[in-house]
Design brief:
The structure is a single chain. With 387 residues, the chain is α+β, with helices and mostly antiparallel strands. The chain has 2 domains: 2-178 and 327-386, FAD/NAD(P)-binding domain (3-Layer(bba) Sandwich); 183-320, no CATH class. It is 36% helix and 23% strand. It has 15 helices and 19 strands. The strands form 6 sheets. It has a 7-stranded antiparallel beta sheet. A 3-stranded antiparallel beta sheet has the order 2-4-3. Strands 6-7-8 form a 3-stranded antiparallel beta sheet. The longest helix has 21 residues, at 366-386. The radius of gyration is 24 Å and the shape is elongated. The chain binds flavin-adenine dinucleotide (FAD). Flavin-adenine dinucleotide (FAD) binds next to helix 2, strand 6 and helix 15.
Amino acid sequence: MFAAWLLLEKGLAVDLYDSNTRPGRKFLLAGQSGLNITNEEPPALMAERYGRGRDLFLSLLRDFSPDSLRTWLGNLGVSLIKGNGGKIFPERASAGEILDLWLARLNGNRHFHFIGNARIVQWDGEGLHLNNGDRDLLIKERPVLYALGGASWPGTGSNGSWSGIFRDRGIDVIPFKPMNCAFSVAWSSRFRESRTDKPLKNISMFYGGESRRGELTLTDTGLEGGPVYWFSLPLREEIERNGFAPIHLDLTPDKTVEQLERDLKKRSPRKSLSSFLKGTLRFSPQKAALVHEAFRKAGEMPPSELARGIKKLPLTLTGTGPLERAISVSGGIALTELDDFLMLKKTPGYFAAGEMIDWESPTGGYLLQGCFSTAYRAVEGMEAFLS
Ligand SMILES: Cc1cc2nc3c(=O)[nH]c(=O)nc-3n(C[C@H](O)[C@H](O)[C@H](O)COP(=O)(O)OP(=O)(O)OC[C@H]3O[C@@H](n4cnc5c(N)ncnc54)[C@H](O)[C@@H]3O)c2cc1C
């Protein structure tokens, strides 16, 4: 949709096909959890968030930066606000309202045509074959930009079915894996029963010598939330290698070990640890239950040892949650298949953008920024191809 916008601005005509009757379903879904649209980090730092796509993104973000995206949204009439960690959100507009504004501007251009309910079923030397209900369509024209998404939340239309069609054309598509996903923990049955759906607020998570502050949701099968998403790539890789990945949580990041130890020493032997943590130290029931889950004899531990334990509570992650429920995916078109303009080297005139390319990033506004920046570059390539 952003590529269509840019192409129309250049005076070109655009046909946009989507298997849904309306584009932008995943954008709407992203809006349900806040729509963190970009991040104010400078491009050089932001590029580091894209893992092995770092070099590509260094150049992409120089051309279409978070500032460029903020300007574009401003021109669309969307005001923005800053959250924690440089995250940028729409101030008032919902994802639905942004999508409406965006589509209204596209539809207002007589050179724009949207063809919904049109699914790509084959791609061969003749062109691109789509099925539009009871009609078959063949698109022979080039350039074509593919923006078919990843393979999570298939109900949004991004079901990854394109990967087989691309492999049939000899294009290397790296298998999809979940990113920014839930992780499994083998909770005890006692913990599972006592658990509530309330988030575990204000914790720090430690992994691989780094820490991340935020909140986690403890589910029946494990945990999810910002801090664990941040580490999801190395965590997933460690689980693939070893079958598990150890992490630590600091349940009281605003207190030092010494302060916590002093507090714990105030507990009278007659008071249970659980009621002391919840009543005197104001631990949420989730936090108190986690202490007992990690340390079976927590009530008998000396305050110094317990304080160290609560500040470095060990948990073992044993697997990732399902791909279908992940916020994003790793995998997709191998970077080696694309030239600097994101054109598929084996099929001149065919370009790719967005999550269908094999890059990944944590949450924090990097995913949508990545989609916009790749679209911007691909449009430059399409223009060059035409001339
Ligand atoms: C719950 C959730 C919350 C999120 N929150 C955020 C957030 O706050 N910030 C952020 O940066 N990112 C967020 N994301 C990620 C972000 O929404 C995606 O990375 C982004 O939408 C991907 O855009 P895309 O254009 O590459 O693909 P998509 O938005 O997935 O679009 C792909 C399109 O291709 C169409 N398509 C697929 N296959 C075919 C076919 N064979 N024929 C025809 N059409 C086809 C689909 O119908 C779909 O419309 C979130 C994702 C989820 C699931």
